[in-house]
Amino acid sequence: MIDFSIIITALPALARGALVSLAIAAGASFIGLTFGALLGVCHQSKNKFLSIPVTCYITLMRGTPMLIQIPFFCYYIFPWLGLDFSLAVKATLAIGLNSAAYISQIIRSGITSISSGQIEAARMLGLKTWQTAWYILLPQAIAVIAPALISEFITLIKDSSLASTVSVVELFKEGTIIISKTYNAIPIYCAIAVIYLLLTISLSWIGTHIQKKVRHYASH
């Protein structure tokens, strides 16, 4: 029997899971943006010792499912590297490393949209490659790619559910635990879907506001 009143009882646990999902998405966003910017700049480099390994990494991360990547990183790669974190932190790192591959291409598209004359002018002024990237390319690129970045960050909210594959108790995992105890799946799945929808709509609204601010700042 479907009993939607169970949602009221389940709300505290689902809210707790939603906070964990937000924390995972926020951490993965920071890792993805930071590492993705570095990958995007290196991918554009004419130095093959930089561009070839970066290309291989991006191809691997984009070409394999995150469902496999998260357990592989959490149970094999990170322990092999001596990184003794909690599973929640490891899952966040794994999701962030995957996101970095996608963000690198977003960054790259933004960089290629900038006039090559500005890069030449920077060289004439004696700026180093990293100075050109940091002070000239990235600020302008971010203004161009803001919508794509916001979309990627919203996607990470939904991707945070994959942390449940390594037993991280985020929103989806909290829901499955409740279902295993109550055997009442439909109301809980509906509640989980509504919470994800509210989170993504809220972030979309915030992202649109930030996008307007970025465009205003870039135009001045």
Task: Write the SSE topology.
Elements (H helix, E strand, L loop, with lengths): L5 H39 L3 H16 L2 H15 L6 H26 L3 H9 L4 H31 L11 H12 L2 H35 L1
Could you give a short description of this structure?
The protein is mostly helical and 220 residues long. Helix content is 83%, strand content 0%.
What does it look like?
This protein has 220 residues and is mainly alpha-helical. The protein has one domain: Orthogonal Bundle (MetI-like fold), CATH 1.10.3720.10. 83% of the residues lie in helices and 0% in strands. It has helices at 6-44, 48-63, 66-80, 87-112, 116-124, 129-159, 171-182, 185-219. It is elongated and about 70 Å long.
Properties at a glance:
220 residues; mainly alpha; MetI-like fold; 8 helices
State the low-pLDDT regions, or none. Answer: none
- In what range is the share of β-strand residues? under 5%
N-to-C span: 60 Å
The radius of gyration is: 20 Å
Kindly give the count of domains.
1
Beta-strand segment tally: 0
Provide the helix percentage: over 70%
State the secondary-structure class. Answer: mainly alpha
CATH fold naming: MetI-like fold
- CATH architecture grouping: Orthogonal Bundle
**How can the largest sheet be summarized?**
none
